[in-house]
Specification:
By secondary structure, the protein is an all-alpha fold. Helices cover 72% and strands 1% of the residues.
């Protein structure tokens, strides 16, 4: 087994970050999360070449070219079909993780990347624009699955005091994917006309590395014990992912959760919405996932070049300046990753959304005043950097982590379907609505995003508790008390709630054990 690194924890127990945990976080993020970021940015640089290919292909077929409106529609479909595929992937992820497991889903869905890579790579040879569009749709399906299953997998294999650290590793790789696409898209590398098919299909390389190495690592111990009832495989997996220490306490915590779910099967989305005991968790997942996309980050990325151009940056230098924002994304992601176990989830989300809201207001002010005050152009650039940094520190990755933490095993797949679907729907909505919003509201359109960011920050501050260094059972009890005390006031003594509704998922716990959320359960 690989080496071990000590990570101090504010809790009673100092857990160890093992080489196996780091390797799995790296491999799953490299071949899955990184591709999401890459595919977000990959079509920007070769846009002119792709449009020329579309037009020339139609000329070769029909003898006449496409109108400007039709060509724009085809390219818009190429871009947006990625989000449609992502929505489909987020809908089917619950079925996949239940059938194949967490690691099994990551490994089995790599075939989608290879199919998409072949379609896009050979599209010019075949003279088929349809192959690019279908390839983008398939990569969207893969990304929709990955955005849910990777944080779910990492959240389940991590000890409780390292769950935040490992849970934010995918967000770093998403930023790395965007940065990689920006660098490879430069004219000196793959930004030339003859290289665009290779530029689109290079996603197969990191996925191939993942496919070769990830199968050697074990499945999620929680999945093996709670859903497959395989104690031997669970012990083997924990020995892989933990340092040489007593794993008995962790197994007992999983068994306690297994007993609380003994009469509860994996829930569907419909049953999740019908379960009143998790209504605050479901609402919280909906708010933070919608807020993540309606924060306006996609609109900022889309209009970064225009804002830099208004600031007086020469057109020839804008691609390099834009690539510089990719470095900011990675640095901000690293800051969030290494500070989350010290600061907690709430400060990163509240701080990130608040920073984005303030900077959105700053962009509006700078756009209004830059005609009269030239220095306001640089204020606009600073606000763009602030929005990107604020997003990558917290809102880019914490919502996926929190989705895993707020639910126990039976509810987690359905929760990811809800969160992932709303995330992709909101992504598509922003891309569709923002051009019209900007035409009608102009520079004031960013105030809409700023208001949403500040509203989400307030919601997180008021409703969502801190989940740092807590087990899944302890987290569920915090929400159980939020639900149970008003409903049972005057009927049941508060202390009895620990026994009568301890699981918070509609299943009564019959064991004699009591759990107090203030205690430290490994």
């Amino acid at each position: 087994m690989a080496g071990e690194v000590l990570i101090p924890s504010p809790g009673k127990i100092t857990s160890q970050l093992t080489g196996s945990l780091l390797a799995v976080a790296f491999l799953t993020s490299l071949g899955s999360s990184m591709l999401y970021g890459y595919n977000l940015a990959v079509v920007n640089s070769p846009a002119v070449y792709i449009k020329d290919f579309y037009n020339q292909s139609v000329v070769n077929r029909n003898g006449t070219g496409l109108s400007e409106e039709t060509l724009t529609l085809m390219y818009s479909l190429t871009v947006s079909v990625f989000a449609i595929g992502g929505l489909l992937g987020s809908v089917i992820v619950g079925m996949l993780v239940t059938r194949f497991g967490r690691k099994g889903t990551v490994v089995n869905t790599t075939v989608l990347v290879f199919i998409a890579s072949l379609l896009m790579g050979f599209s010019r040879n075949c003279g088929s624009p349809e192959m690019i569009i279908v390839g983008r749709f398939i990569t969207g399906i893969h990304s929709g699955i990955s955005l849910s299953v990777v944080p779910m997998y990492l959240g389940e294999i991590a000890p409780k005091n390292l769950r935040g650290f490992l849970g934010l590793v995918p967000s770093i790789f998403i930023g790395t994917g965007v940065f990689t696409a920006q660098i490879l898209g430069l004219h000196e590398l793959l930004g030339k006309e003859e290289h665009w098919p290779l530029f689109l299909s290079v996603v197969a390389v990191p996925t191939f590395i993942q496919l070769m190495l990830l199968p050697w690592f074990p499945e999620s111990p929680r999945y093996l014990l709670i859903e497959k009832h395989n104690v031997h495989a669970t012990i083997t997996a924990l020995k892989w992912y933990r340092a040489k220490c007593d794993i008995q306490a962790e197994i007992e915590e999983m068994q306690e959760e297994q007993r609380s779910l003994s009469s509860v099967e994996t829930l569907s989305v419909w049953k999740l919405f019908q379960d009143d005991t998790v209504r605050w968790q479901v609402l919280s997942v909906m708010v933070i996932n919608i807020g993540m996309q309606l924060s306006g980050i996609d609109a900022i990325w889309f209009y970064t070049n225009d804002i830099f151009e208004d600031a007086g940056i020469p057109a020839s230098e804008i691609p390099y300046t834009t690539a510089g924002t990719g470095v900011i994304e990675i640095i901000a992601g690293l800051v969030g990753c290494f500070s989350i176990e010290k600061l907690g989830r709430r400060p990163l989300m509240i701080g990130g959304f608040t920073m984005m809201g303030i900077c959105c207001g700053g962009i509006t002010v700078s756009l209004i005043l830059q005609a009269h005050l030239p220095f306001m152009r640089y204020v606009g650039v600073a606000c763009v950097v602030g929005i990107i940094a604020g997003f990558c520190i917290g809102p880019a990755g914490v919502p996926f982590l929190v989705t895993a933490e707020l639910f126990k095993q039976s509810h987690r797949p359905a929760a990811y379907i809800v969160g992932g679907s709303l995330n992709w729907l909101s992504n598509f909505t922003v891309g569709f609505v923002f051009p019209f919003l900007q035409m009608s509201a102009g520079s004031y359109s960013y105030l809409v995003f700023g208001s949403i960011c500040l509203s989400v920050a307030v919601y997180v501050y008021v409703v969502i508790p801190e989940t740092k260094n807590k087990t899944f059972m302890e987290i569920s009890q915090m929400f159980t008390k939020k639900e149970a005390v008003p409903e049972t006031q005057g009927l049941i003594h508060v202390d009895q709630l620990k026994l009568k509704k301890m699981n918070g998922y509609g299943g009564m716990e019959h064991a004699s054990l009591e759990f107090d959320s203030s205690s430290s359960v490994p």
